[in-house]
Amino acid sequence: MYFKDIIGLRDIKKHLIESVQRGFVPHARLLYGPEGVGKLPLAIAYARYINCLNPQLDDACGECPSCLKFNKLAHPDLHFAFPVIKSKVSDEYLPQWRDFLSQNTYFNLNDWLNFIDAQNAQGIIYAKESDEIIRKLSLKIYEAKYRIMIVWLPEKMHEACANKLLKMIEEPPENTVFLLVSEEPDAVLPTIQSRCQPLHIRAIEENEMVNVIESKYRFSKKDASSVAHVANGSFTKAITIIESTDETRFFFDLFKRMMRASVSRKIRNIKTIANEIAGIGREMQKSYLLYCLRMFREYFINNLHEPQMVYLDSEEADFGIRFSPFINERNVEKLNDEFSIAYRQIEQNGNAKIIFLDLCLKVTVLLLK
Q1: Which of 288, 291, 276, 368 shows the shortest CA–CA distance to 327?
Q2: Do 68 and 158 fall into the same domain?
Q3: pLDDT score for 245
Q4: Based on the domain organization, do 136 and 186 belong to the same domain?
Q5: Neighbouring-strand partners of residue 177
């Protein structure tokens, strides 16, 4: 991945490149921002650039021995830590990780977990990962100017792993750089945050996204603009919209049936949909709850009659014609709270059947307000 492969964010790329040209390479950076804006590819492009033997004014050369090894993500001084399953460490999934990154530039945690067939397992950076990181970084640098450790989603670190890395992140070996890539920086251990130089990676500019969608997918300007507007700065979301994934349709169908069951006040319908959601796997459940939170936001804003502030596709918008009035100032905050609580309970391995039945019953009460 090169800087040229990353959509938009021209000022951020310029800042990173110029900092290297000035000789300023912090020992630890925290790249944080919303999902789908290119934080991980940006970290990889930055790692490539600082180790390029012939860096150009705006990108790595792509021809030196270092760049050729980065092309395959097989540079001996480039290391990764990322969420895995089955209490393993990242290196045990390294071939799949390289294969996944070769096929995808913009993606999310669910995409990765689906790729490795995680099923119901949640992605975690387990405690023993810290021993592997410390071991790798204690060895002599093979050939690069800098040894790079990229940690994708440090908020998924087991607390024991995070605590054990504090000293290493604060005082790494000479010419060692940590790049932490986070979507939930508030969930990263504060003592780790304080040891990193933060860099906020904002949403992708809409005009930049429109241009890419037009050229890559051969959309008209109007259709590309519509997709970019709904994606709201996330190219991962744009891809989902363009490909009309089964997951998005599935979530929308679940949402409609959950809301209709709750409004019907029929306990059999409520139990049926609650049990169905409880059976889809924890990562999917978490993604579904986040989808619901987004829908509540969109339908509430939809009542304000400000279409430029609403990010719904055509099917979601059609459903909102009748449903939006149910989401109002009397219940929107409470709905947000209840779905956020359910998300945390699922994340803590709570009983999904109880959680979703309770949630559906609460929605029944709240939608009548």
Answers
A1: 368
A2: yes
A3: 62
A4: yes
A5: 148
Do 217 and 347 share a structural domain?
A: no
The amino acid that residue 271 corresponds to is K
Residue type at 182 in one-letter notation: S
Phi, psi for residue 99 in degrees, rounded to 5: -65, -45
18 and 114 assigned to the same domain: yes
Closest by CA position to 44, among listed 70, 63, 65, 14: 70
Contact 360, 335 (CB under 8 A): no
CATH number at 351 reads 1.20.272
* Separation between Cα atoms, residue 3 and residue 41, nearest integer Å: 8
Measured CA to CA, the distance from residue 34 to residue 52 in angstroms comes to: 28
Q: Which residues, 6 or more positions from 365, have their beta carbon under 8 angstroms from its beta carbon?
A: none
The fraction of the chain above a pLDDT of 70, given in percent, is 99
Q: Tokens for 42?
A: 């940006």
Per DSSP, the three-state class of 36 is: coil
Residues 123-178: tens digit of each pLDDT: 999 999 999 999 999 999 999 999 999 999 999 999 999 999 999 999 999 999 99
Q: What is the mean pLDDT of residues 17-28?
A: 95
Residue 144: CB atoms within 10 Å: 21
Say if residue 249 is in the same domain as residue 177: no
Q: For tokens 């059609």, what's the residue?
A: 318
> Do 265 and 239 belong to one domain?
no
Q: Which domain holds residue 282?
A: 245-367
0.70 surpassed by pTM: yes
The number of distinct structural domains making up the chain is: 3
Encoded tokens for 58: 């705006």
In the prediction, which pLDDT does 145 show? 94
Q: How far is CA 254 from CA 270, 276, 317, in A?
A: 12, 9, 16
- Give the integer Cα–Cα distance in Å for 133 and 79: 8
